[in-house]
Structures are given as structure tokens and as C-alpha cells.
Amino acid sequence: MRTRIFAHRGASQYAPENTMPAFQLAYEMNADGIETDVQLTKDEIPVLIHDENVRRTTNGTGFVQDYTLNELKQLDAGSWFSSSYTNTSIVTLEKFLQWISSKTLELNIEFKNNVIDYKNLENIVYHMVRDYGVLDRTTFSSFNPRSMERMNKLDPNVNTAFLTTSKVRRLTQFVQSIGCNGLHVKYRVLSTQLAEESDKYGIDLRVFTINRPAQMSRCFKLNCAGIFTDVPDLAMSKRANYPNNHNPIRIHPFQRR
Ligand code: G3P
Ligand code: MG
């Protein structure tokens, strides 16, 4: 399998991040998958938004967790990006799943629970993804290792990845110790040794956020399992230059615990 190209928050260089236009563009650009961020509203509805606070990506202020879904839907999540996206609304996870379930795209759902550890987030999201029949093409990820442990307990066969921006020793061992089969790292954490070690232990190594051609080349040469990019069109054309790019298919998934 080639290094998988995930549109980071959708094709977020070209349309407002984590909105339907950004997801639709990623699909049209033939990305392999979509990465998105999930948080919970006051009424415990999972919604796709990166920040805990709505300020940066909407015309509102305050925390997602203090809004009901109905209140959140009134916000404009597009005009901060460009006036041509005025009145684009925040997407619920359910709407996203409805849209993606008829397609073959892979999913990476990132739990944004390292600042606010939303109670029930894993449970609610897991059951919704399962009900839409896309569990086997979904990887759940988080910077919060306790959240990944909770997911692995909920369903030991689910794909989970630990996210990190830090170069720490014994990272692959840590990933194994919390029962994950994936490791998502910031580009500066990537090294040949980490790629080799991940391969040895059957851990899917994916790298964010890869927007520059030189970074893409390195990830393709190291046969990383995936990259997250705001420019999936560029990554797709770049990958075509690496015919030997190949990441082993995990026939025997990493055995947890
Ligand atoms: O999931 C990869 C990447 O999205 C993690 O960082 O801050 O862009 O959500 P962030
Ligand atoms: Mg993310």
C-alpha cells in the first residue's frame, strides 16, 4: 500500500477547515482519507472543530462545550476564511459520517480532548462511527494517552493512534504500552530510526502537517503509513514520482495487550 494521503481538516488550504466544502474538495482531489477534529457541545453532540474555543474559525466567541448544537449552528464558520464561504456552518460528526459512508475514503477522527477531557466523548463517537459502518476504515487518535486507553478498552480491535509533537525516548514502546497500533507525529519528530522502529513493531507511522514538497518526498522515501496535508492535490501529484513507495499492509494487526 502507498503512503496514505489524508486531507488535514479537509483540503484546508483551499476552503475553511473542518467544513463540508473542505471535505468535498479533498474528495474531488482524490485524497485517500480525511483527518478531522471532534469536540462535544453542551448537549453532547460531537461536532467537527479544531479549537476548544469558536473564536478563531467562526464569528462567535466562547467555548464549544458551552454551546448547544442549535446555538452553534447559527455561527458562520466560513467568512473568517473568505467571503465566498459566508454562512458555511459547523458540521456535526453525524453529517460527516452520512456523507463519507457512501465513499471509500479513510477516516482519521482526532479527539480534541487533551485540553478539555470531555466525558463520554469516546463512547459517543465510537458508537456513531460503528453505526455508520465505517469502523474498519477509521483510525481514532488523540494527544491524550488516557483517551486512547479508554478507546482500546471499549473495543480492542479498533485502530487507535497516539499523537505527539515531542521527541521523546522509547516512543514506540509507549505507544504499545497504551495499546495503540498507530503513531502520529509532528514532522520534526520524524527520523529514519523512528520509521524503522515503527515498521518493526507493526505501528502505523503517520506524519503531520506535510505541506512542503521536500517534506512529502522524505515521508514517501521513508515509506511512512500516512501523511496529513492541507494540500492533498500537491501530495497526490508528488507521490506519483515515487513508484517504489510502499508501506506494508498489516495482515496481522498489532496484537494489543
Ligand atoms: O491529526 C494530525 C494533526 O491534525 C494533529 O494536530 O493540531 O492539527 O489537530 P492538529
Ligand atoms: Mg487534527
What would your notes on this structure say?
The protein is of the alpha/beta class. The protein has one domain: TIM Barrel, CATH 3.20.20.190. The chain has nine helices and ten strands. Strands 1-2-5-6-7-8-9-10 form an eight-stranded parallel barrel, surrounded by five helices. Helix 4 links the parallel strand 5 (106-111) and strand 6 (138-142). The longest helix is centred in the middle third of the chain and has 11 residues, at 121-131. The radius of gyration is 17 Å and the shape is globular. The two termini are 26 Å apart. Bound molecules: SN-glycerol-3-phosphate and magnesium ion. SN-glycerol-3-phosphate (G3P) binds at residues 8, 35, 37, 50, 110, 141, 163, 184, 208-209, 228.
Helix % is 25-40%
Q: Strand-and-helix sequence, N→C?
A: EHEEHEHEHEHEHEHEHEH
Poorly predicted segments: 251-257
Structural class: alpha/beta
CA-based gyration radius: 17 Å
Write out the strand line-up for the largest beta sheet, numbering strands in chain order: 1-2-5-6-7-8-9-10
CATH architecture: Alpha-Beta Barrel
Distance between the termini: 26 Å
Say which CATH homologous superfamily is assigned.
Phosphatidylinositol (PI) phosphodiesterase
The CATH class is identified as Alpha Beta
Please provide the count of β strands.
10
Mass-distribution shape: globular
Summarize this entry quickly.
It contains nine helices and ten strands. The chain has 257 residues and is α/β, with parallel strands linked by helices.
